[in-house]
Specification:
Blueprint lengths: L1 E5 L3 H16 L3 H8 L3 E4 L5 E5 L10 E18 L2 E14 L8 E12 L3 E13 L6 E13 L8 E7 L3 H10 L3
Parallel strand pairs: 2-9
Antiparallel strand pairs: 1-8, 3-4, 4-5, 5-8, 6-7, 6-9
Length: 183
């Protein structure tokens, strides 16, 4: 069981996500079987976005350095084979500069990928850093990250498992996210 990060070129990453999306739209039995053999995939709502403020007490729109959002996450699976499923996770991360972030040229976004037995236990968890660059004075940028996860089935259906992802938040950022979402 494990998680292996992979960075692909933008073209390869777009092709991977397009393949996943097209497989989800296909009506062939083969595509339906491949889709059926994947665990569930979710972006945790409390970890789907982050609004980073500049240091200090200010929390107005003028104090926003940048906003980060996980736009989408897709799963493409191989298997089950040998009692496990190998899945490619495609994660789309978007960053937009705020008024207090005019001088930024890049942002490091920590994110996590977790494999769980649905609602019971964590099987594996890893945290990664994604570099999002702002080219030529642009105010936003995005990347597609790709991670390979192995789900040990332990004699169970792939439906008994879930792959969870999101932005790795500090406790203060998590509390702020929940407050902003009214929770």
């Amino acid at each position: 069981m494990g998680i292996v990060p992979q960075r692909f070129s933008q073209a390869a990453a777009v092709a991977l996500l397009a393949t996943v999306l097209l497989a989800g739209c296909s009506s062939s039995k083969e595509a339906e079987t491949a889709k059926a053999e994947c665990p569930a995939m979710s972006v945790l709502s409390d970890a789907a976005s982050l609004q980073q403020f500049r240091d200090g007490p200010g929390r107005t729109p003028d104090d926003v350095v940048y906003d980060v959002e996980v736009l989408d996450a897709k799963l493409l699976c191989d298997g089950p084979q040998g009692g496990q499923v190998t899945a490619q996770v495609g994660l789309s991360i978007y960053v937009r500069k705020g008024p207090a972030g005019k001088g930024l040229t890049e942002v490091t976004v920590p994110y996590f990928v977790t494999v769980t037995e649905t609602n019971t236990r964590v099987l594996s968890r890893a945290t990664y850093n994604s570099q999002v660059e702002f080219g030529n004075g642009k105010s936003s940028g995005g990347v597609i990250e790709n991670v390979t996860v192995t789900v040990p089935l332990e004699g169970k259906s792939p439906y008994a498992f879930e792959v969870l992802t999101g932005i790795q938040l500090t406790p203060a950022q998590f509390a702020e996210s929940r407050k902003r979402r009214g929770r």
